[in-house]
Write a structure and sequence with these properties.
CATH superfamily: Metal-dependent hydrolases
Number of helices: 13
Protein name: Amidohydrolase
GO molecular function, one term: hydrolase activity, acting on carbon-nitrogen (but not peptide) bonds
Organism: Candidatus Protofrankia californiensis
Pfam families: Amidohydro_1 (PF01979)
Shape: globular
Number of domains: 1
CATH architecture: Alpha-Beta Barrel
CATH topology: TIM Barrel
CATH class: Alpha Beta
Keywords: Hydrolase
Distance between the termini: 31 Å
Structural class: alpha/beta
Radius of gyration: 20 Å
Largest sheet: 6 strands, parallel
Helix content: 25-40%
Strand content: 5-15%
């Protein structure tokens, strides 16, 4: 089948622990990113739209073949407001945290907190100047935002319109983190290309999304994981209540979007070392929460390609398309095999068997390896690319 397109992941993040993020050297975090990219490609994901963290240098290193990994589109940082979702503030000691708490910080990296009240245009331009392929805006709070209660909209309709118009002037689309009907409706009306998460949308917002051709990227897996965590006693009660309520809304969100004719694309929202490489489990989640087998597979391939503007070159196996493909040794059937880490037994990226299947002729594998950079070929059993000293 075609290689999987993950429209929402965070390839630079490998822990939920803010203390680990603050104490890990910057250089080590970049090497961790290389490991996450390797795992993602070996799992069968051949294209990723990163929702914040990866910058143009990570994308261009993949293109140059310095490290193995999928094709990558970047948003650099997700734009938020002060006291908003992901602003990074350390409430315990009352300190303003550096941006590196949630995204790698280094000279030249744009600020992710929009300077109010009229700094939106400058913030978008800073992200675009940093090489972003997409602009990511937090149109609402998140499930784990620190303020108890329902996630609230973060920006006005006019501010969201500025984001879309400024991005469009540079030929870029906008992806909007949005939970709740109000935030979804405002983002869609402003002209965003996709709604990330979208929990709580109603028939009205779904109809608006379908009318404007806006794609939903529901990222189901992390919400199911939060729902499970809420039952362990590790979350404060308000967060546990919100996690349980959100988990109960997932199937309804998918049903509302599906019935309105909204296009749905896969997004794993991976942000932990134990989850990178398990991206394809989201296919199973999409099916269990309401999509048919065929619609779940389309969400993982053709729909993602259309959203990312690459449907003329990837997303299907056909003449004149890039041969990005994965091999399975069994019929996916009810799609449950995608929850197993060994379900993908071969991966092609641009015609190169980056994870060679055991039945691929050895002579063919050797010939291809001799013709490409060694870093393009993965060792599926480890975290490092397979060595090939003889390759040019």
């Amino acid at each position: 089948m075609p290689g999987v397109i993950d429209c929402h992941s965070h390839v630079t993040l490998c822990t939920y622990d803010p203390l680990e993020l603050m104490t890990t050297p910057l250089s080590e975090r970049f090497f961790q990113t290389a490991s996450m990219l390797h795992r993602t490609l070996a799992a069968g994901v051949t294209y990723v739209r990163d929702a914040g963290g990866a910058d143009a240098g990570v994308r261009d290193s993949l293109i140059a073949g310095h490290i193995p990994g999928p094709r990558l589109a970047v948003s650099v940082v997700g734009l938020t407001r002060s006291e908003g979702h992901g602003d990074g503030a350390l409430l315990g000691p009352g300190l303003e945290a550096p941006a590196a708490v949630t995204a790698l910080g280094y000279p030249g990296r744009p600020q992710h907190v929009v300077q109010e009240p009229d700094g939106m245009r400058a913030a978008v331009r800073a992200v675009l100047r940093a090489g972003a392929d997409w602009v990511n805006i937090f149109a609402s709070g998140g499930i784990m935002s620190v303020r108890p209660g329902e996630p609230l909209p973060e920006f006005t309709a006019s501010e969201l319109a500025v984001v879309v118009s400024e991005a469009a002037a540079f030929g870029r689309g906008v992806m909007a983190h949005a939970l709740g009907a109000s935030a979804v409706g405002a983002a869609v009306s402003a002209g965003v290309r996709s709604i990330e998460h979208g929990i709580g949308l109603t028939e009205r917002e779904a109809a608006l999304m379908a009318q404007h051709g806006v794609t939903l990227v529901p990222t189901l897996s992390p919400y199911h994981e939060l729902g499970h965590l809420a039952g362990t006693g590790h979350l404060p009660q308000w967060a546990a209540d919100r996690a349980h309520a959100t988990q109960a809304m997932l199937a309804d969100t998918i049903a509302v979007a599906r019935d309105a004719g909204v296009r749905i694309a896969l997004g794993s929202d991976c942000r932990h070392r134990d989850r990178h490489g398990t991206n394809l489990a989201e296919i199973t989640r999409l099916h269990r929460d309401g999509l048919s087998v065929s619609d779940a597979l389309l969400a993982a391939t053709a729909n993602g390609a259309r959203l990312c503007g690459i449907s003329e070159s990837v997303g299907r196996i056909a003449p004149r398309y890039e041969f990005d493909a994965i091999l399975l040794d069994e019929d996916p059937g009810d799609l449950s095999l995608f929850e197993r880490p060994d379900s993908v037994t071969g991966v092609f990226l641009g015609g190169v068997p980056v994870v060679p299947h055991t039945r691929l002729p050895a002579a063919m594998t050797a010939q291809i390896r001799d013709a490409v950079r060694p870093s393009l070929v993965c060792d599926p059993a480890g975290d490092l690319p397979a060595a090939n000293p003889a390759a040019p």
